[in-house]
C-alpha cells in the first residue's frame, strides 16, 4: 500500500502502479491533440506563401488546405477519445484513492479515532478522491499540452532569425522559473485552507451528531458562534489563497502579454527588414496565439490545482500517520481451544498520563465467569480494551490459551471475542443488517433464535418494516434498552468463545432485565466471561468477583465472601455503587 504524505509523489505513485496504461493514454492523446493543432501555423505559413506566388498552384493550395482540415479533424478526434478514456479512468481512480485511504485509516487504533473528528476524517477521504482527479487532469492534460506546444514552437522557430529563437528561449526559461517560484509559495497557503475546511466540516458533523445534546442545553447560539469562528477562519484562509492566486495570475498573464507583444513585434520587424516572408509572420502570430491560449488555460487551472494539492496534502498528513497497534509480520491467527486468559505483569498508561496498570496480573480460567467491580477510573473498561487489544501494553504479556495476543492477527482476535458494551453502537442501516453484523452467514433460523434469546421480538414486531426497518444514525430511533437488546442478539449470533460484558443490562427496565438475565446466563454457557457489573443479579451469576482500585486488585471472591470480608466491596455495597435490586 502507498504510504506517503507528499501529494505529488502519492498521485504519481498511484497512477504508475494502478493506472499506468490509462495515464500514458491520457497524456499521449493530449499530446496528439495539441501537437496536431500546433502544426496548423506551419501549414498556414505554407498556404499563404503558396497563395502569394505569381503563379498559384491550385493543387498544392488545395492539398495544404486538406492537410489543415485533416489536422483539425484528427486533433478533435484525439481530444474526444481522450474524453472517453478519462470517463473510464476518473471514477475508478476516485474510488481506488478513497478505498486506499480507508484501508489505512481503518487500521488505526481506537486512540486515533478518539483524537480526530469522524466528520473530519470522512471529509478528508472524500476530498482526497476529488483532489487526485483534479491533479491528474491538470498534469496529464494542461501540463502536457503546454509542454508539447512549447517543444513544437521551439523546433519551428529554430529555423527563423536567431533573435526570435533566442528571445523565445529566454522568455520560456523566465516564465517557467517564475511559475515554479510562485507554486512553491502557494502550496502552504492551500494546505492551511484545506485544514480549515476540514475543521469546519468536522465541527458541523459534531454538532449534527450531538443535536439532541445541543437542543437539551439550548446551545444553538453557542454552537453557531463556534461554527461562525471556524467558518471565518476558513474564509480568511480561502481569501489568502485566492488573493495570492489572483496576483499569481496577474503576474503570469503580464508575462504572457509581454511575450506575445514582443514576439509578434519581432515577427513584424523581421518582415519589414526582409528577414521573414508574410507566411512566416502569420506563423509567428499563430504560434504566439496557441502558446498564449495554453499558458493562460494552465494559469486558470492552477488555482484549482494548488487548492486540491493543499487539500490532498492535509488529508494524507492525517490519514498516513503511523499505526500504533500493528500485526507482526506473518502473524498467525488466534486459535481458542479453552478460552483461558492470562494477564502477566502488565504496565499500561494512556500516553504520558498517570499509569492505569502497574505490574498487574490476573488469570481467568477457561470457562470462568469473572465480574469486575470498582469505582470510576479503577481500570475496568481499560482492562477489557487491553484484552481486545484496542491498545498495546507498554510491558508484560496477555495470553489467550497460551498465545500472546500481540503476536496473533487482530482480525482473528476480534472474531473470537464477543462484546456487549454499555453504550451499544448501531449503524444507520436496517435491523437485519445490524443483527447480522456479527455473523453475516447466519441462517434465518439462527437469526430468529438470537432475536428470541435477547427478547427482541417486540422490537421487530413494532418496527414499521420489521427487520427491514432502518434504525437511524447510531440507532437513535431505538431506545437505550432496545439498542442493548440488539447488541445482545448480535452476541448470540456471533457465538464467540470469549465474552466481554460492560454493564450489559444497564439500560434495561426491571421487567426486561429479568428476562434478559436468563438469556445472558445461556449466552455465557461454555464461555470465558469478563463482566463489568454493578447489578446484584449479574454479580451473583459470576464465579469470581475482582474488585479494582487504581489499577490494582484489592479483593476477589464471591459476593457473599466479599461482603463478609467487610472491605472495599462491602463499602461499595453500602454506598449504593452496587445495586441490590434483583430485577
List the helices and strands and how they pair.
Elements: H1 7-18, H2 20-38, H3 40-51, H4 58-105, H5 110-115, H6 118-157, H7 162-209, H8 211-216, H9 220-272, H10 278-319, E1 341-349, E2 355-364, E3 369-373, H11 380-387, E4 395-400, E5 403-404, H12 410-415, E6 417-420, H13 431-435, H14 444-453, H15 457-462, H16 480-494, E7 498-502, H17 510-523, E8 528-532, H18 536-539, E9 544-549, E10 552-557, H19 559-565, H20 568-575
Parallel strand pairs: 3-8, 3-9, 6-7, 7-8
Antiparallel strand pairs: 1-2, 1-4, 4-5, 9-10
Helix pairs in contact: 1-2, 2-4, 2-6, 3-4, 3-10, 4-6, 6-7, 6-10, 7-9, 7-10, 9-10, 14-16, 19-20
Describe the protein in words.
- This protein folds into two domains: 310 residues, Up-down Bundle (ABC transporter transmembrane region fold); 235 residues, Rossmann fold (3-Layer(aba) Sandwich), CATH 3.40.50.300.
- It is of the alpha/beta class and 583 residues long.
- The protein is elongated and about 125 Å long.
- The relative contact order is 0.08.
- It starts with 6 loop residues before the first helix and ends in an 8-residue tail after the last helix.
- It contains 20 helices and ten strands.
- Strands 6-7-8-3-9-10 form a six-stranded mixed β-sheet, sandwiched between helices. Strands 2-1-4-5 form a four-stranded antiparallel β-sheet, covered by helices on one side.
